[in-house]
Structure to design on (948 residues):
C-alpha cells in the first residue's frame, strides 16, 4: 500500500496548525487574491478544525471518490516511533470501532470494490492518504453514510487489536524486503536531514521494535481533526454530503497538537558526488543538480513565478540547441521546499563529459552577461504560452482529488478560469531578459551552498570523476572568452499541406455490397458483413475529442510461419512500417498526417496482424483511403532495407546490450522462460548469414499483402464520435473494392502444447534472504465468453485466498498476487500466476499453503456471498471502463474479444452470461483445470525444497 509520495512544504495550512510564522506567510503574498478552486467546490472547516472539500463531478458516472488526507507522515515520528506512520496505515484496515476485524474491507468488497484498486492508502514523509473509489450515485445515501463512517473511524476509531498488530508486523517486514526505491542516486538527492532517517516504511529494525503502545501514542498524538481533510468528489449532492460531514465529524474532539514542524530539505555545504559503475550503458551519464527553494503557486503572481522557471528552462534549452551544446536542462520540485535545477550530459569518456560541463558554464555566463536576444526570448515565450490553457475537458474525479491533495498539503492551486489564465499570459508575455537573467543568477547562486553530482560511469575506474574535476571544468568555462551569439528565429511554417489526391477520392456506396447487418442495442453496436467477406463492428461514442479509432485485424502472423520461412519474413512488420504509401512522397505524407492529426501504424505478432488508425471524425474518408493504400500499395524503401540488412549481417554473432542485460537481469530471464513455456514466444533456430542475405523486400511485400489483403479474414473495429450510417457507407464504399480471395493463406487453431509435468527453474538473486516466486498453473480451454469469465472469477478467488492465508493469517508475504493470462485463438491457453516475495526460509511453507488452497477450491464450493461480490465488481469495472466516452477502450475490448474466440452475441448478454456461472461451476472448473501437483515454479533466489 505504500507509495513514495513527495510534497512541497505546507505553508498556509501549517499556519492554521501553529507550525509556521506570520512573517513566513507574508512572504507568500497573502495580500494577493488566491486562485479560485474548481467551480462548484464546497469548502469548509468545522469548529474542531476538520477541513472538507466537496465537488460534484460526473466522470466517471455512478462513482464517487472519498479521501481522508492527514497532513502528516513519517517526518513527524520521534526516534522511538520510526515506521509508525506507515504501520498505522496498515492497521487502518485491521479493525475499528464500527468495523471490527475485517468487516470494513468485507463491506467495501460487497459493493463490488477491490482491495488495492478501489481500496487503498499511501504514506509519505508529510502525508497519509486513505482512498476509496465507491460505486454509487447521489441517491445512495446509505452507502455514502457508511463510507463517511469509515473515514471517521480512520480518524478517531482504530482498534489496534494486539493479535492483528503482531501479524501485520510480518507483512510489513516482507514489504520492506522487496522494496526498491527505484533510483540509484536517491541518497544523494535527498541529502542529510530529517527525511534521511525517516523513510516512510521505516527500517526492519524499526518495525521489529515498534509495539502496539507506540502506535496508539502516535495515533492519539497526531490524528486530530485539525490535521485532517475529508475530500469527496463524484456523483454526489454536495448539500447532503456537507450536512452529513458536519453531523458525523463535529463530535470528534480537537486535540492539542504539539511539536508539529515543517522540515526543510537541507544539504551539507559543498559538492556531493556519487559514482556508480554500469558497463551495460552505451555511454556514461553525468548530472549536476542545484537544489533551490520552490514556489507555492496559489495566486496569479506566484504561479507566474513558477512559470518564469519554465520559461527560463525553455530559453536555455533553445540556446544550447543553437550552440550545439549537448546538455538537457530541467527544473522540477523534488521534496519538501526544494526544486532541483538539473543539467544532464552523456558521453563516452571523462574528458568529453567535462568539456560539456565547461561549454555549459561558458554559455550560462554568456547569458548572465549578455542576456537573451529579443527574438529568442519571443520564441520561448510563444512556446510556453501555447501550453498555458484552461483545460475545459471533463476531468476524472480521481484527478480532481489529486489536485485537492496538492492544495491541502502544499497550498498549490491550479488556474480554472479564462480570466485568471489571461492575467497569467499577460505577465508571461511581458517578461524581459533581465528578469530571466536575475532568476538564473539566483538559481546558480545556490550552487555555492550545495551541488549534487550523479555519475553513471560505463568505462571503468580510469574515467572516474572527482569533485575537483567538476569545479575545474565549471571554472574553465567561466574564464573562457564568451562567444558572440547570433540567434536565428525558429521558422514557423504556416503553409498548409494539400490533401494528397489519392486520399481525397470518394467511392460510390452500393447497398448490395452488404450481405447482412445486425444491431446490438445493449452495446449500441452495429455489425456489418460484406460480400467479399469483410466484417465491420461500429460502436459510436460521445468522445469529446471528436476522434475516430480504427483497427483492422485478422488471423495470421509470424508464429504461423514454418521454420524455413520464418527467417525470411519475421521482420515484415518493421520493414513495411519504414515507408508510407506509394502514391505520396514520405515527407509530404508525414507533414499532412501531422497537420491533420492522423496516425496509422501496423503490427504483426505471432498469430495476428493489425493496422491501426486514428483521425478526426471529419477526416474519416482520408483515413480509410490511407489504410486502403497501405494495404495494397505500401511504399517499399529499398535503400533503407539494404542498409538495415547489411547492418544485421555485420552485427551477426555479436552480443547486444539487451542480451547482456538479459543475462544479468533475473526478472527478465524469468519472464522470458515463462513466455516460452506458455507459448507467448515462438522458439526458432538462430538466424544465419545465409538467412539475412536471402532477405528480399519484394517477397516480404508479397507476404505482407497475402495477410492484409484478404477480406474474408479481416475485421474492422471502428469507435469514436460518428454517425453510424454515414461511417457504414464510407467503409463499405472504400473497402468493398477489396477482392475476395478464394485460395488465401490458411491457419491452424491447434492448441499449444504446455508442459506435461511439474517444471522448476531457479534464477540468481543478490538478496540472500529473499525469494521471489511464480507458481504457475496452466492448461488448455475452449474459448468462449463464459469460460473467460469463469477463469477471471477463479483468478479473483485465488487472489482472495492468497491474501487471506499467506498475508493475513500466516503473515509471511506482503503483496501476493494472482494473475490470469489467457490466449483464446489460436493457442487456447490459460495460466494462473501466483507470485510474491518471501523469506527463503518460508518457501517450503508457501508451496504447501498454495497446494492446500487449490485442494480446498477443488473439493469445496465458494460461498454465494463471495461469488456475488465478485460478479458485482465485474459489472462495475465494465461500466467504468467501457463508458460511452471511452472510444479507445471500446476498440481495444472488441478486438481482444474476437482474438480470444469470444462472440459479440455473448458480450451483448454479458450480465446474463456472468450471472449463469454458479458456485458449482467454479468448483468444477478448479477440479478440471487446476492440479495442485502439476505446476511450473520459477523463482529468483533459493528454495528450501528444491535447493536441498
Amino acid at each position: 500500500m505504500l507509495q513514495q509520495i513527495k510534497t512541497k512544504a505546507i505553508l498556509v495550512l501549517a499556519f492554521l496548525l501553529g507550525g509556521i510564522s506570520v512573517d513566513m506567510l507574508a512572504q507568500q503574498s497573502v495580500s494577493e487574491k488566491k486562485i479560485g478552486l474548481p467551480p462548484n467546490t464546497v469548502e469548509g472547516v468545522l469548529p474542531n478544525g476538520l477541513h472538507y472539500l466537496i465537488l460534484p463531478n460526473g466522470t466517471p458516472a455512478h462513482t464517487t471518490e472519498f479521501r481522508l488526507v492527514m497532513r502528516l507522515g513519517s517526518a513527524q515520528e520521534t526516534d522511538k516511533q520510526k515506521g509508525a506512520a506507515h504501520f498505522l496505515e496498515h492497521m487502518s484496515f485491521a479493525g475499528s470501532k464500527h468495523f471490527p476485524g475485517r468487516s470494513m474491507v468485507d463491506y467495501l468488497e460487497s459493493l463490488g470494490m477491490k482491495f488495492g484498486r478501489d481500496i487503498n492508502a499511501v504514506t509519505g514523509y508529510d502525508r497519509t492518504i486513505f482512498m476509496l473509489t465507491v460505486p454509487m450515485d447521489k441517491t445512495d445515501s446509505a452507502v455514502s453514510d457508511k463510507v463517511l463512517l469509515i473515514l471517521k473511524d480512520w480518524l478517531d476509531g482504530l482498534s489496534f487489536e494486539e493479535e492483528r498488530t503482531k501479524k501485520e508486523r510480518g507483512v510489513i517486514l516482507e514489504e520492506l524486503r522487496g522494496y526498491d526505491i527505484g533510483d540509484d542516486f536517491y541518497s544523494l538527492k535527498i541529502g542529510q536531514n530529517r527525511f534521511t532517517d525517516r523513510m516512510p516504511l521505516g527500517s526492519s529494525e524499526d518495525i521489529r521494535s515498534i509495539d502496539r503502545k507506540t502506535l496508539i501514542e502516535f495515533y492519539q498524538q497526531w490524528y486530530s481533526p485539525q490535521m485532517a481533510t475529508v475530500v469527496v468528489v463524484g456523483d454526489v449532492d454536495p448539500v447532503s454530503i456537507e450536512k452529513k460531514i458536519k453531523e458525523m465529524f463535529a463530535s470528534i474532539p480537537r486535540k492539542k497538537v504539539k511539536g508539529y514542524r515543517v522540515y526543510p530539505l537541507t544539504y551539507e555545504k559543498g559538492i556531493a558526488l556519487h559514482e556508480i559503475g554500469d558497463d551495460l550503458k552505451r555511454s556514461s551519464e553525468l548530472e549536476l543538480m542545484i537544489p533551490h527553494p520552490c514556489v507555492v503557486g496559489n495566486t496569479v503572481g506566484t504561479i507566474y513565478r513558477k512559470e518564469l522557471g519554465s520559461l527560463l528552462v525553455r530559453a536555455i534549452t533553445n540556446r544550447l540547441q543553437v550552440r550545439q551544446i549537448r546538455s538537457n536542462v530541467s527544473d522540477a520540485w523534488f521534496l519538501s521546499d526544494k526544486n532541483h535545477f538539473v543539467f544532464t550530459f552523456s558521453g563516452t569518456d571523462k574528458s568529453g563529459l567535462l568539456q560539456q560541463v565547461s561549454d555549459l558554464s561558458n554559455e550560462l555566463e554568456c547569458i548572465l552577461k549578455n542576456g537573451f536576444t529579443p527574438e529568442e526570448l519571443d520564441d520561448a515565450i510563444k512556446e510556453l504560452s501555447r501550453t498555458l490553457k484552461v483545460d475545459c475537458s471533463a476531468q476524472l474525479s480521481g484527478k480532481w482529488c489529486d489536485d485537492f491533495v496538492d492544495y491541502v498539503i502544499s497550498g498549490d492551486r491550479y488556474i480554472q478560469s479564462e480570466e485568471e489564465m489571461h492575467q497569467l499570459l499577460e505577465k508571461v508575455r511581458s517578461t524581459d531578459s533581465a528578469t530571466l537573467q536575475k532568476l538564473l543568477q539566483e538559481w546558480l547562486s545556490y550552487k555555492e551552498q550545495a551541488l549534487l553530482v550523479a555519475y553513471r560511469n560505463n568505462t571503468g575506474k580510469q574515467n572516474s570523476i572527482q569533485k575537483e574535476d567538476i569545479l575545474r571544468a565549471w571554472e574553465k568555462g567561466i574564464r573562457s572568452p564568451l562567444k558572440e551569439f547570433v540567434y536565428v528565429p525558429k521558422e514557423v511554417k504556416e503553409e498548409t499541406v494539400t490533401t494528397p489526391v489519392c486520399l481525397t477520392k470518394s467511392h460510390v456506396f452500393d447497398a448490395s455490397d452488404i450481405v447482412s447487418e445486425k444491431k446490438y442495442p445493449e452495446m449500441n453496436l452495429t455489425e456489418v458483413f460484406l460480400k467479399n467477406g469483410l466484417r465491420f463492428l461500429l460502436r459510436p461514442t460521445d468522445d469529446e475529442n471528436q476522434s475516430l479509432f480504427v483497427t483492422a485485424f485478422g488471423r495470421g502472423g509470424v508464429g504461423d510461419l514454418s521454420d524455413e520461412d520464418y527467417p525470411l519474413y519475421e521482420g515484415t512488420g518493421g520493414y513495411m512500417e519504414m515507408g508510407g504509401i506509394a502514391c505520396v512522397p514520405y515527407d509530404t505524407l508525414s507533414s499532412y498526417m501531422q497537420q491533420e492529426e492522423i496516425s496509422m501504424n501496423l503490427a504483426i505478432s505471432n498469430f495476428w496482424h493489425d493496422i491501426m488508425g486514428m483521425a478526426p471524425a471529419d477526416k474519416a474518408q482520408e483515413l480509410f483511403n490511407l489504410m486502403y493504400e497501405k494495404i495494397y500499395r505500401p511504399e517499399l524503401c529499398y535503400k533503407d532495407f539494404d542498409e538495415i540488412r547489411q547492418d544485421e549481417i555485420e552485427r551477426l554473432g555479436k552480443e547486444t546490450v539487451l542480451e547482456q542485460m538479459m543475462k544479468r537481469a533475473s526478472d527478465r530471464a524469468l519472464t522470458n522462460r515463462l513466455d516460452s513455456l506458455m507459448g507467448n514466444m515462438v522458439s526458432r533456430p538462430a538466424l544465419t548469414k545465409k538467412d539475412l542475405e536471402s532477405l528480399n523486400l519484394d517477397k516480404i511485400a508479397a507476404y505482407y499483402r497475402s495477410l492484409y489483403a484478404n477480406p474474408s479474414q479481416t475485421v474492422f473495429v471502428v469507435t469514436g464520435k460518428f454517425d453510424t450510417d454515414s461511417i457504414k457507407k464510407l467503409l463499405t464504399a472504400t473497402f468493398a473494392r477489396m477482392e475476395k480471395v478464394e485460395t488465401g493463406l490458411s491457419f491452424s487453431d491447434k492448441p499449444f502444447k504446455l508442459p506435461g509435468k511439474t517444471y522448476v527453474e531457479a534464477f540468481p538473486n543478490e538478496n540472500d534472504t529473499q525469494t521471489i516466486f511464480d507458481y504457475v498453473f496452466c492448461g488448455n480451454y475452449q474459448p468462449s465468453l463464459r469460460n473467460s469469465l469463469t477463469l477471471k472469477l477463479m483468478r479473483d478467488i485465488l487472489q482472495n485466498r492468497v491474501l487471506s492465508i499467506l498475508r493475513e493469517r500466516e503473515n509471511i508475504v506482503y503483496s501476493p498476487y494472482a494473475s490470469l493470462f489467457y490466449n483464446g485463438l489460436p493457442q487456447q491457453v490459460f495460466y494462473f500466476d501466483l507470485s510474491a516475495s518471501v523469506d527463503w526460509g518460508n518457501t517450503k511453507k508457501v508451496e504447501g499453503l498454495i497446494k492446500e488452497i487449490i485442494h480446498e477450491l477443488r473439493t469445496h464450493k465458494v460461498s454465494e456471498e463471495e461469488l456475488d461480490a465478485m460478479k458485482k465488481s465485474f459489472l462495475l469495472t465494465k461500466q467504468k471502463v467501457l463508458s460511452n466516452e471511452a472510444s479507445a477502450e471500446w476498440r481495444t475490448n472488441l478486438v481482444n474479444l474476437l482474438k480470444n474466440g469470444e462472440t459479440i452475441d455473448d458480450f451483448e448478454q454479458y450480465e446474463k452470461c456472468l450471472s449463469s456461472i454458479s458456485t458449482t461451476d467454479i468448483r468444477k472448473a478448479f477440479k478440471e483445470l487446476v492440479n495442485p501437483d502439476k505446476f511450473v515454479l520459477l523463482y529468483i533466489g533459493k528454495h528450501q525444497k528444491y535447493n536441498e
Remarks:
- Residues 518 and 527 are 5 Å apart (CA to CA).
- Residues 1-30 have pLDDT under 50 and may be disordered.
- DSSP finds 35 helices and 23 strands in the chain.
